[in-house]
Amino acid sequence: ERGDNERYRILTRRTLMLGGLQAGMISLLVGRMYYLQVVESGRYQMLADDNRISMRLIAPSRGLIVDRAGLVVANNDQNFRALIVSEQTRDVERTLGVLSGIIQLSPSEVERIRHDLVRRRRFVPVTVRENLTWEQVSMIEVNAPDLPGVIIDVGEVRSYPLADQAAHLVGYVGAVSESELSDDDPVLALPGFKMGKSGVEKTRDADLRGTAGTSEMEVNAYGRTIRELSREAGERGRKVTLTIDSELQIAAHKRLLQERSAAAIIMDAQSGAVYALASAPGYDPNVFSKGIPSDLWKALLDDETTPLINKAIGGQYPPGSTFKLAVALAGLESGAIGLDHSVTCNGTFQLGDHTFYCDAYKNGGHG
Question: Which of 179, 271, 321, 342 is an active site residue?
Answer without folding.
Answer: 321
